[in-house]
Amino acid sequence: MTVWEKLRPYGMVAPAIIIFSLFFIYPIFYMIYLSMFDWNFVSPTKTFVGLQNFKDLLTEPDFRQVLTNTTIYTVLTVTLTTGIALLLALWLNRKSFFHGFVQGAIFSPHIISLVSISLLWSWLMDPEYGLLNWVIGLAGFGKLEWLSHPSTSLISLVMVAVWKGLGYNALVFIAGLQSIPADIYEAASLDRSKPWTTFTKLILPMLSPTIFFLVIINMIGSFQVFETIAIMTQGGPVNSTNTLVYYIYEYGFRFFKIGYASAAGVILLFIVGILTMIYFKLLSNRVHYR
Protein backbone atom coordinates (compact mmCIF):
# COMPACT_ATOMS: atom_id res chain seq x y z
CA MET A 1 0.00 0.00 0.00
CA THR A 2 1.40 3.36 -1.07
CA VAL A 3 1.63 6.42 1.14
CA TRP A 4 -1.20 8.08 -0.81
CA GLU A 5 -3.48 5.10 -0.27
CA LYS A 6 -2.78 5.29 3.47
CA LEU A 7 -3.45 9.04 3.61
CA ARG A 8 -6.46 9.07 1.28
CA PRO A 9 -9.07 8.25 3.99
CA TYR A 10 -7.74 11.04 6.18
CA GLY A 11 -7.80 13.44 3.24
CA MET A 12 -11.44 12.58 2.53
CA VAL A 13 -12.56 13.35 6.09
CA ALA A 14 -10.23 16.34 6.50
CA PRO A 15 -12.74 18.97 5.20
CA ALA A 16 -15.40 17.81 7.67
CA ILE A 17 -12.90 17.75 10.52
CA ILE A 18 -11.65 21.24 9.66
CA ILE A 19 -15.17 22.67 9.52
CA PHE A 20 -16.17 20.92 12.75
CA SER A 21 -13.03 22.15 14.52
CA LEU A 22 -13.44 25.70 13.23
CA PHE A 23 -17.10 26.14 14.13
CA PHE A 24 -17.49 23.81 17.13
CA ILE A 25 -14.23 22.88 18.86
CA TYR A 26 -12.49 26.26 18.59
CA PRO A 27 -15.50 28.29 19.93
CA ILE A 28 -15.71 26.00 22.97
CA PHE A 29 -12.07 26.52 23.91
CA TYR A 30 -12.28 30.23 23.16
CA MET A 31 -15.35 30.50 25.41
CA ILE A 32 -13.42 28.80 28.22
CA TYR A 33 -10.55 31.24 27.60
CA LEU A 34 -12.86 34.29 27.72
CA SER A 35 -14.51 33.09 30.93
CA MET A 36 -11.29 33.95 32.78
CA PHE A 37 -11.27 37.59 31.65
CA ASP A 38 -13.19 40.78 32.26
CA TRP A 39 -13.95 42.20 28.81
CA ASN A 40 -16.64 44.55 27.51
CA PHE A 41 -16.52 43.35 23.88
CA VAL A 42 -15.36 46.80 22.72
CA SER A 43 -12.09 47.48 24.50
CA PRO A 44 -9.02 45.93 22.83
CA THR A 45 -7.66 44.90 26.23
CA LYS A 46 -8.89 42.11 28.48
CA THR A 47 -8.34 41.97 32.24
CA PHE A 48 -7.47 38.54 33.60
CA VAL A 49 -9.66 37.67 36.60
CA GLY A 50 -9.16 33.91 36.85
CA LEU A 51 -12.18 32.15 38.33
CA GLN A 52 -13.80 35.33 39.64
CA ASN A 53 -16.56 35.21 37.01
CA PHE A 54 -17.54 31.74 38.18
CA LYS A 55 -17.55 32.86 41.82
CA ASP A 56 -19.79 35.81 40.96
CA LEU A 57 -22.15 33.55 39.04
CA LEU A 58 -22.51 30.94 41.75
CA THR A 59 -23.20 33.57 44.41
CA GLU A 60 -25.69 35.52 42.28
CA PRO A 61 -29.34 34.89 43.34
CA ASP A 62 -30.63 35.64 39.84
CA PHE A 63 -28.37 32.97 38.38
CA ARG A 64 -29.65 30.39 40.85
CA GLN A 65 -33.18 31.33 39.80
CA VAL A 66 -32.16 30.88 36.17
CA LEU A 67 -30.81 27.40 36.93
CA THR A 68 -34.07 26.52 38.68
CA ASN A 69 -36.15 27.82 35.76
CA THR A 70 -34.05 25.87 33.26
CA THR A 71 -34.34 22.66 35.28
CA ILE A 72 -38.13 22.95 35.66
CA TYR A 73 -38.56 23.82 31.99
CA THR A 74 -36.38 20.90 30.86
CA VAL A 75 -38.01 18.29 33.12
CA LEU A 76 -41.54 19.31 32.16
CA THR A 77 -40.82 19.67 28.45
CA VAL A 78 -38.95 16.38 28.09
CA THR A 79 -41.43 14.41 30.20
CA LEU A 80 -44.60 15.78 28.61
CA THR A 81 -43.32 15.77 25.02
CA THR A 82 -41.99 12.21 25.19
CA GLY A 83 -44.95 10.80 27.12
CA ILE A 84 -47.72 12.41 25.07
CA ALA A 85 -45.90 11.64 21.81
CA LEU A 86 -45.71 7.96 22.75
CA LEU A 87 -49.45 7.84 23.44
CA LEU A 88 -50.16 9.61 20.16
CA ALA A 89 -47.89 7.22 18.28
CA LEU A 90 -49.70 4.19 19.70
CA TRP A 91 -52.99 5.67 18.48
CA LEU A 92 -51.72 6.86 15.07
CA ASN A 93 -49.83 3.69 14.17
CA ARG A 94 -52.53 2.66 11.70
CA LYS A 95 -52.81 2.78 7.93
CA SER A 96 -55.79 4.96 7.07
CA PHE A 97 -56.40 8.33 5.47
CA PHE A 98 -57.57 9.85 8.75
CA HIS A 99 -54.54 8.71 10.75
CA GLY A 100 -52.20 9.83 7.97
CA PHE A 101 -53.88 13.24 7.92
CA VAL A 102 -53.51 13.60 11.70
CA GLN A 103 -49.84 12.62 11.46
CA GLY A 104 -49.24 15.39 8.93
CA ALA A 105 -51.23 17.89 11.00
CA ILE A 106 -49.34 17.31 14.23
CA PHE A 107 -45.99 17.27 12.40
CA SER A 108 -46.56 20.66 10.73
CA PRO A 109 -45.51 22.76 13.79
CA HIS A 110 -42.09 21.11 13.65
CA ILE A 111 -41.33 22.62 10.24
CA ILE A 112 -42.65 26.08 11.11
CA SER A 113 -40.17 28.69 12.29
CA LEU A 114 -40.00 28.96 16.07
CA VAL A 115 -40.16 32.74 15.69
CA SER A 116 -43.49 32.46 13.88
CA ILE A 117 -44.80 30.02 16.48
CA SER A 118 -43.74 32.35 19.30
CA LEU A 119 -45.57 35.28 17.70
CA LEU A 120 -48.66 33.13 17.16
CA TRP A 121 -48.76 31.93 20.76
CA SER A 122 -48.12 35.44 22.05
CA TRP A 123 -51.39 36.42 20.40
CA LEU A 124 -53.19 33.30 21.58
CA MET A 125 -52.12 34.01 25.17
CA ASP A 126 -52.91 37.71 25.14
CA PRO A 127 -54.78 38.40 28.42
CA GLU A 128 -57.36 40.68 26.77
CA TYR A 129 -57.79 39.55 23.17
CA GLY A 130 -56.21 36.08 23.12
CA LEU A 131 -58.10 33.07 21.82
CA LEU A 132 -57.24 30.92 24.85
CA ASN A 133 -58.85 33.32 27.31
CA TRP A 134 -61.88 33.58 25.02
CA VAL A 135 -62.25 29.78 25.05
CA ILE A 136 -61.91 29.41 28.81
CA GLY A 137 -64.25 32.37 29.20
CA LEU A 138 -66.93 30.44 27.30
CA ALA A 139 -66.34 27.57 29.71
CA GLY A 140 -67.10 29.86 32.64
CA PHE A 141 -63.56 30.39 33.90
CA GLY A 142 -61.84 33.71 34.49
CA LYS A 143 -59.06 35.15 32.37
CA LEU A 144 -55.51 33.92 32.89
CA GLU A 145 -52.41 36.07 32.66
CA TRP A 146 -50.52 33.44 30.69
CA LEU A 147 -47.27 35.30 30.12
CA SER A 148 -47.53 38.21 32.55
CA HIS A 149 -47.74 36.38 35.88
CA PRO A 150 -44.84 34.47 37.47
CA SER A 151 -47.03 31.50 38.41
CA THR A 152 -48.14 30.76 34.83
CA SER A 153 -45.47 32.21 32.54
CA LEU A 154 -43.01 29.31 32.64
CA ILE A 155 -45.80 26.71 32.24
CA SER A 156 -47.04 28.69 29.22
CA LEU A 157 -43.63 28.40 27.57
CA VAL A 158 -43.63 24.67 28.30
CA MET A 159 -46.98 24.41 26.50
CA VAL A 160 -45.50 26.06 23.41
CA ALA A 161 -42.45 23.76 23.44
CA VAL A 162 -44.59 20.63 23.84
CA TRP A 163 -46.95 21.72 21.05
CA LYS A 164 -44.05 22.31 18.66
CA GLY A 165 -42.11 19.14 19.47
CA LEU A 166 -45.02 16.72 19.72
CA GLY A 167 -45.30 15.90 16.02
CA TYR A 168 -41.63 15.12 15.47
CA ASN A 169 -41.45 12.90 18.54
CA ALA A 170 -44.67 11.11 17.60
CA LEU A 171 -43.45 10.34 14.08
CA VAL A 172 -40.15 9.01 15.40
CA PHE A 173 -42.11 6.77 17.77
CA ILE A 174 -44.33 5.61 14.90
CA ALA A 175 -41.22 4.69 12.92
CA GLY A 176 -39.98 2.74 15.94
CA LEU A 177 -43.32 0.94 16.31
CA GLN A 178 -43.36 -0.01 12.64
CA SER A 179 -39.86 -1.46 12.93
CA ILE A 180 -41.04 -4.00 15.53
CA PRO A 181 -41.43 -7.40 13.78
CA ALA A 182 -45.03 -8.50 13.31
CA ASP A 183 -44.30 -11.98 14.65
CA ILE A 184 -43.71 -10.48 18.12
CA TYR A 185 -47.29 -9.24 18.17
CA GLU A 186 -48.48 -12.61 16.84
CA ALA A 187 -46.62 -14.44 19.59
CA ALA A 188 -48.15 -12.18 22.22
CA SER A 189 -51.59 -12.78 20.76
CA LEU A 190 -51.13 -16.55 20.78
CA ASP A 191 -50.02 -16.35 24.42
CA ARG A 192 -53.15 -14.28 25.15
CA SER A 193 -51.05 -11.50 26.56
CA LYS A 194 -53.01 -8.59 28.00
CA PRO A 195 -52.58 -5.19 26.27
CA TRP A 196 -50.79 -3.67 29.28
CA THR A 197 -48.44 -6.65 29.52
CA THR A 198 -47.72 -6.49 25.79
CA PHE A 199 -46.98 -2.78 26.08
CA THR A 200 -44.69 -2.99 29.11
CA LYS A 201 -42.94 -6.29 28.36
CA LEU A 202 -42.64 -6.14 24.56
CA ILE A 203 -43.32 -2.72 23.04
CA LEU A 204 -41.43 -0.56 25.54
CA PRO A 205 -38.25 -2.70 25.47
CA MET A 206 -38.33 -2.70 21.66
CA LEU A 207 -38.81 1.08 21.69
CA SER A 208 -36.00 1.70 24.17
CA PRO A 209 -33.51 2.91 21.51
CA THR A 210 -36.11 5.39 20.25
CA ILE A 211 -36.91 6.61 23.76
CA PHE A 212 -33.19 6.87 24.54
CA PHE A 213 -32.60 9.01 21.44
CA LEU A 214 -35.60 11.29 21.93
CA VAL A 215 -34.91 11.99 25.60
CA ILE A 216 -31.33 13.02 24.80
CA ILE A 217 -32.40 15.25 21.90
CA ASN A 218 -35.26 16.84 23.84
CA MET A 219 -33.10 17.43 26.91
CA ILE A 220 -30.35 19.19 24.97
CA GLY A 221 -32.91 21.23 23.02
CA SER A 222 -34.68 22.28 26.22
CA PHE A 223 -31.45 23.52 27.77
CA GLN A 224 -30.84 25.60 24.64
CA VAL A 225 -34.26 27.31 24.50
CA PHE A 226 -33.95 30.93 23.41
CA GLU A 227 -36.36 32.14 20.72
CA THR A 228 -39.61 31.67 22.62
CA ILE A 229 -38.21 33.48 25.66
CA ALA A 230 -36.69 36.31 23.64
CA ILE A 231 -39.97 36.95 21.79
CA MET A 232 -42.65 36.07 24.33
CA THR A 233 -41.36 37.05 27.79
CA GLN A 234 -37.78 38.43 27.63
CA GLY A 235 -37.07 36.45 30.80
CA GLY A 236 -39.89 38.06 32.79
CA PRO A 237 -41.98 38.62 34.69
CA VAL A 238 -39.55 39.06 37.62
CA ASN A 239 -37.04 36.61 36.14
CA SER A 240 -39.57 33.75 36.22
CA THR A 241 -38.87 32.56 32.65
CA ASN A 242 -35.21 33.45 32.31
CA THR A 243 -33.13 30.41 31.28
CA LEU A 244 -29.44 29.81 30.80
CA VAL A 245 -29.12 30.63 27.11
CA TYR A 246 -31.17 33.83 27.38
CA TYR A 247 -29.17 34.78 30.49
CA ILE A 248 -25.95 34.32 28.49
CA TYR A 249 -27.36 36.43 25.66
CA GLU A 250 -28.37 39.22 28.03
CA TYR A 251 -25.00 39.53 29.73
CA GLY A 252 -23.05 39.02 26.53
CA PHE A 253 -24.89 41.21 24.02
CA ARG A 254 -26.94 43.61 26.15
CA PHE A 255 -24.69 44.29 29.14
CA PHE A 256 -21.43 43.50 27.26
CA LYS A 257 -20.00 41.39 30.08
CA ILE A 258 -18.37 38.87 27.80
CA GLY A 259 -16.30 37.10 30.45
CA TYR A 260 -19.30 36.72 32.74
CA ALA A 261 -21.48 35.43 29.89
CA SER A 262 -18.72 33.02 28.81
CA ALA A 263 -18.52 31.65 32.35
CA ALA A 264 -22.27 31.01 32.25
CA GLY A 265 -21.75 29.26 28.88
CA VAL A 266 -19.07 27.03 30.40
CA ILE A 267 -21.47 26.10 33.21
CA LEU A 268 -24.18 25.29 30.63
CA LEU A 269 -21.72 23.11 28.71
CA PHE A 270 -20.70 21.36 31.92
CA ILE A 271 -24.30 20.71 33.02
CA VAL A 272 -25.40 19.30 29.66
CA GLY A 273 -22.27 17.16 29.40
CA ILE A 274 -22.62 15.74 32.92
CA LEU A 275 -26.33 15.01 32.51
CA THR A 276 -25.72 13.30 29.17
CA MET A 277 -22.92 11.16 30.65
CA ILE A 278 -25.10 10.18 33.62
CA TYR A 279 -27.99 9.35 31.31
CA PHE A 280 -25.79 7.18 29.10
CA LYS A 281 -24.23 5.51 32.13
CA LEU A 282 -27.49 4.67 33.85
CA LEU A 283 -29.69 3.74 30.91
CA SER A 284 -27.46 2.59 28.05
CA ASN A 285 -27.39 -0.96 29.43
CA ARG A 286 -31.19 -1.04 29.44
CA VAL A 287 -31.51 -0.21 25.75
CA HIS A 288 -32.37 -3.23 23.63
CA TYR A 289 -31.30 -3.06 20.00
CA ARG A 290 -32.63 -6.49 19.10
UniProtKB/TrEMBL annotation:
GO BP term, pick one: transmembrane transport
Keywords: Cell membrane, Membrane, Transmembrane, Transmembrane helix, Transport
InterPro entries in the record: ABC_transporter_permease, MetI-like, MetI-like_sf
Taxonomic lineage from the root: Bacteria, Bacillati, Bacillota, Bacilli, Bacillales
Main localization of the protein described in the UniProt heading: membrane
The species this protein was found in: Paenibacillus prosopidis
Subcellular location: Cell membrane
Topology term for the membrane: Multi-pass membrane protein
Record's GO cellular component terms: plasma membrane
Transmembrane stretches, start-end: 12-33, 72-92, 104-124, 154-177, 198-220, 258-280
Record family assignment: Belongs to the binding-protein-dependent transport system permease family.
Identification of the protein by name: Carbohydrate ABC transporter membrane protein 1 (CUT1 family)
